[in-house]
Amino acid sequence: MNCFGGILDPSTYNLEKPIGILEDKNTILKAHGVHSADQLKMLGIDCRLLSVFCTSKSEEFGGFIVVFDYMRFCSDKELMEAIIWHEIGHLANPVTLNTFNIEAEIACDRMAFENSGPSGIIKLLVKTKEMGKNLGNQLLVELTNQRLYALSTY
Ligand SMILES: [Zn+2]
Predict the structure, then answer these.
(1) Cα of 131 to ligand 1 centre, how many Å?
(2) Which domain holds residue 37?
(3) Ligand 1 centroid, distance to 90 Cα (angstroms)
(4) Pick from 28, 41, 88, 126: most CB atoms within 10 A?
(5) Which residues pair with 19 in a beta bridge?
(6) Is pTM beyond 0.90 here?
(7) How many domains does the chain have?
(8) Does residue 52 contact residue 28 with C-beta atoms inside 8 Å?
(9) pLDDT higher for 58 or 145?
(10) What sections of 54-137 are H helices per DSSP?
(11) How many angstroms does the Cα of residue 39 sit away from the middle of ligand 1?
């Protein structure tokens, strides 16, 4: 079951159509190959890092940011804004689920950097790198290093 978290105002976020924020635990678990919420907890994963962008087939919405836990998503405004702007970046830099496109991610990070400031997006990437280390996912660590390096050049 998914439930509506919020709607991003087009004028605030410079959008053609509003973007919805949905809480949908199953979509997030499936997108990341995690079996259960307990497993997330056990692995010490910060669920805010798992947010994904989905395009919309409806006339009303430009797309949806799907989050695991809406309250948790909103708990740190800086991080939340960085995630929102990064995900909005995926409107212009689409990616398909289960693939990783470093150029698209870097372009979306830049979107967050320019619109919500450096500290939120840096926090997000440092947390992502930590997660990669904790999971023993060397590829994630390396890709996140590349994204951090790109930010340092702006
Ligand atoms: Zn992304």
Answers:
(1) 16
(2) 2-152
(3) 7
(4) 88
(5) 8, 63
(6) yes
(7) 1
(8) yes
(9) 145
(10) 70-73, 77-92, 102-116, 118-134
(11) 23
User: Are 49 and 127 a contacting pair, CB within 8 Å?
Assistant: yes
Task: Compute the distance from residue 80 Cα to the ligand 1 centre, in Å.
Answer: 14
Rounded Cα–Cα distance for residues 87 and 55 (Å): 11
What would the two tokens of residue 62 be? 């430009």
Each residue's pLDDT tens digit, 30-66: 988 889 999 999 988 999 999 999 988 889 999 999 9
Q: Is the dihedral of CA 114, 120, 126, 131 positive or negative?
A: negative
- Rounded to the nearest whole angstrom, what is the distance from the C-alpha of residue 94 to the centroid of ligand 1? 9
Distance CA(141)–CA(40), nearest Å, equals 18
Q: What gap in Å lies between CA 66 and CA 64, rounded to an integer? A: 6
Residue 69 gets the label, from left (phi > 0), alpha (psi -120 to 50) or beta, of beta
* Phi, psi of 43, rounded to the nearest 5 degrees: -80, -5
Residue 64: its H or E element: strand 63-67
- CA-based nearest residue to 18, from 59, 73, 52, 50: 59
Strand, coil or helix: 58: coil
Q: Could you tell me the distance, in angstroms and rounded to a whole number, from the CA of residue 134 to the centre of ligand 1?
A: 20
Ligand 1 centroid distance, CA of 1 (Å) = 24
